[in-house]
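ok so i was messing around last nite and threw this chain in just to see what happens. nothing serious, just curious
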Amino acid sequence: MSLKQIALLLALSLVLCGHAQAVLTIKITRGIEGALPIAIVPFSWKGTAKGPPTDVAEVIGNDLRRTGRFAPMPESDLPGRPHDGSQVDFRDWRRLGVENLVVGRLKQQGGGGYQVQFQLFDVFKGVQLAGYNIPSTARTLRTTAHQISDIVYEALTGERGAFATRIAYVTESEGADGNKRYALEVADSDGFNPQSILESTQPMLSPAWSPDGTRLAYVSFEAKRTVVYVQDLAQGSREVVAEYPGINSAPAWSPDGKRLALALSKDGNPEIYLLDLASRQLTRLTNNAAIDTEPAWAPDGESLAFTSDRGGRPQIYRISARGGTSSRLTFEGSYNARASFSPDGSALTMVHGSGGNYRIALLDLETNALRVLSSAKLDESPSFAPNGTMIIYATHDKEGSALAAVSVDGRVQQRLSLQKGRVREPAWSPFLD
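result:
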C-alpha cells in the first residue's frame, strides 16, 4: 500500500463524520477448514492515557478471522508479548504451530498524532515479510489497523486486501411516531464507524460508488417520485442528475467515472440510457418493448449487463456500450437479475430464482457455469468486494433482515446484523488508490 493510498484513506475517514447509527455486527457462519494459524500480539502502548483509543491488534485479528482463511491465536494462549522483532524467540511460536506472527508498537505523539509500527514474520523461516511505520490520529486508528490487515493479507495470500474499504447500505427503522425512517449509511468494511449520508422519511435505493470512491449515486423518493442524485462524500453536497418524467433508477458508474448508466422510462417503458455527467447528454442503448433495467458496466467499459424480461421472464443480457444487438447471458432458472461484474470481468454475480427461492449466484462468463452461493429463501442486491474475493448482499431469513457476505467459492459465509431495523441495498466501495 503506497503512502498516497494511506493518505487518501485517512482523509476520507475524517470527512465522513456525520451522525453515527447502529453498528453492524459480523458473525462468521462458515469458514475454511484448516485456516492458517497466525498470532497477532497486542501492540505495546506509550502515551498519556492508560490505554490506546483503539486496540489495533484486535482490529487486525478480527479482520483476518472474518476472511475465514486465518485462525488468529487467542490472546490467552500467546507464549509471549514481544513488540519488536528483536524480542521474538521463534522457537516458542514454532512449538505451537504458529505460521506467522504480527508484532507492533503504538506511540502517542504531539499534536494529537500517533505512530503505529508493525512487523510481520514467517515463524518457520524466522524472517520478516513486511513492516511499516504509519502515522495516524485517534480518529483514524481503526483505518490504520485495516491498512495493516491489508498489508498482512496481501503478503500471505498474494491477493490485495479489502479491509480498508467501505460499504454503503440503506437502513429502515420505525420512529417514535410510528412512521418509517430511512438512512443512507457508509461504514468501514467491518461495519464500524457508520455515518449517515442522508436521512429521510422516504425510501432510498441503489447506492453506487464512483470509481474513485469519493461520490455516491443513489435513488431517492424525497420528491414523491424517483430521482437520481450524486453526492460528494467529502463536501456533503449533492446534485440531481436524473429527474425525467416516469422512472429514474438503477444508476451505475462507468469505469472512468465520466458516465452513469440508468434505467429511464421517459420515452415509455424502461430502457437503458447512458448519461454523460459533464454535458448531461443522454444516449439510449436499448430499444425493446420489454422492461430493461439494472445496468452494470463491465470493468473494461466496453459493454454492460442488464436485466430484461424480453424473453418472458427476467434474465441477464449484454450489450455494447456503443449500442447494437443484445445477447442473452443466463438460461438456467426462471429468474436472474441484478447482475454485477467481478473486478476482473470474468464472472457475474446475480440474484438467481428457482423453485421459489431467490439466492446469490455466480456465472462464469467463459464456461457459462452457474453456481449458487447462498442458501436463504430471499437474497438480493449482490456487490463484489474490490479484490473479487467476497460478495456482499442483503438477505431475509428466519433470523430477520440482514446483510451477508459469501466468498466467491462459497466456502466462507458471514452475517452482518444491525442492532435494530432493517438493512438493505449494500454496495462495496472500490479501492481508494
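not much to say yet. The first helix runs from residue 3 to 15.
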